[in-house]
């Protein structure tokens, strides 16, 4: 599974390590050292994945993610020396698909990249793969697309996986842990609050009034469920 990966990292030594690991796995890698160059390169060549350091000159990684999320659904893996839960949730809220804190193992980084690429690659389209429909919501697990009321909805890889898991079993109550395992596996670095962030972001995208949802409902003390929108909790 060869891919074109853009590495935005201002530390030249770390960037070179990442580049060598990527190329050893058969990927092509381009390295840039500031946020402005990262934005320009994504706009020019649209890589398959962006490895994005948070602390960068000209435009920091959080602003890079915020800007690019308005334009495309490029998978983003953020790297940072910040390790608080608030930083993690902020990165995810801005649209990052995964988040690693420094120092990190290059081998684990490659494993995360492989996982993201597997999840975001478009599979071959076959007519036997049904679209999951729940009310006005249509989730296509093959094309990895979402429509609501006939209009396309831009989702990150994590948001899509949460929504597709729930759309496959409407009205079922999922715990946060079930959604986490169903979408990312039992990764010790990702917390259950990640699911809360994905749900909040999805509500902004598909609910008429995100604060009073009719599709993505909270089941207090348990988790979440997806309904057809005909009733609120």
UniProtKB/TrEMBL annotation:
<feature type="domain" description="OmpR/PhoB-type">
    <location>
        <begin position="129"/>
        <end position="228"/>
    </location>
</feature>
<keyword id="KW-0804">Transcription</keyword>
<dbReference type="InterPro" id="IPR011006">
    <property type="entry name" value="CheY-like_superfamily"/>
</dbReference>
<dbReference type="InterPro" id="IPR036388">
    <property type="entry name" value="WH-like_DNA-bd_sf"/>
</dbReference>
<dbReference type="InterPro" id="IPR001789">
    <property type="entry name" value="Sig_transdc_resp-reg_receiver"/>
</dbReference>
<dbReference type="InterPro" id="IPR016032">
    <property type="entry name" value="Sig_transdc_resp-reg_C-effctor"/>
</dbReference>
<feature type="domain" description="Response regulatory">
    <location>
        <begin position="4"/>
        <end position="117"/>
    </location>
</feature>
<keyword id="KW-0238">DNA-binding</keyword>
<dbReference type="InterPro" id="IPR039420">
    <property type="entry name" value="WalR-like"/>
</dbReference>
<dbReference type="InterPro" id="IPR001867">
    <property type="entry name" value="OmpR/PhoB-type_DNA-bd"/>
</dbReference>
<dbReference type="Pfam" id="PF00486">
    <property type="entry name" value="Trans_reg_C"/>
</dbReference>
<keyword id="KW-0805">Transcription regulation</keyword>
<protein>
    <submittedName>
        <fullName>Response regulator transcription factor</fullName>
    </submittedName>
</protein>
<feature type="DNA-binding region" description="OmpR/PhoB-type">
    <location>
        <begin position="129"/>
        <end position="228"/>
    </location>
</feature>
<feature type="modified residue" description="4-aspartylphosphate">
    <location>
        <position position="53"/>
    </location>
</feature>
<dbReference type="Pfam" id="PF00072">
    <property type="entry name" value="Response_reg"/>
</dbReference>
<keyword id="KW-0597">Phosphoprotein</keyword>
């Amino acid at each position: 599974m060869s891919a074109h990966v853009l590495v935005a990292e201002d530390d030249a030594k770390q960037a070179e390590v990442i580049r060598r690991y990527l190329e050893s796995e058969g990927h092509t890698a381009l390295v840039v050292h500031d946020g402005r160059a990262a934005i320009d390169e994504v706009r020019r060549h649209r890589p398959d994945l962006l490895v994005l350091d948070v602390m960068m000159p000209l435009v920091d990684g959080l602003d890079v993610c915020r800007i690019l999320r308005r334009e495309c659904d490029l998978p983003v893996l953020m790297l940072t020396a910040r390790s608080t839960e608030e930083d993690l949730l902020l990165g995810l809220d801005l649209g990052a698909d995964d988040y690693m804190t420094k120092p990190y193992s290059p081998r684990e980084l490659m494993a995360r990249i492989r996982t993201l690429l597997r999840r975001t690659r478009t599979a071959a389209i076959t007519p036997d793969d049904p679209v999951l429909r729940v009310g006005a919501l249509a989730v296509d697990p093959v094309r990895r697309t979402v429509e609501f009321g006939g209009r396309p909805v831009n989702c990150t890889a994590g948001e899509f996986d949460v929504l597709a898991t729930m759309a496959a079993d409407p009205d079922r109550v999922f715990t946060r842990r079930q959604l986490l395992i169903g979408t990312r596996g039992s990764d010790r670095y990702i917390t259950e609050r990640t699911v809360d962030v994905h749900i909040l972001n999805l509500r902004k995208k598909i609910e008429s009034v995100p604060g009073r949802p009719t599709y993505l409902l909270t089941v207090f003390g348990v988790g979440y469920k997806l309904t057809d929108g005909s009733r609120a909790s």
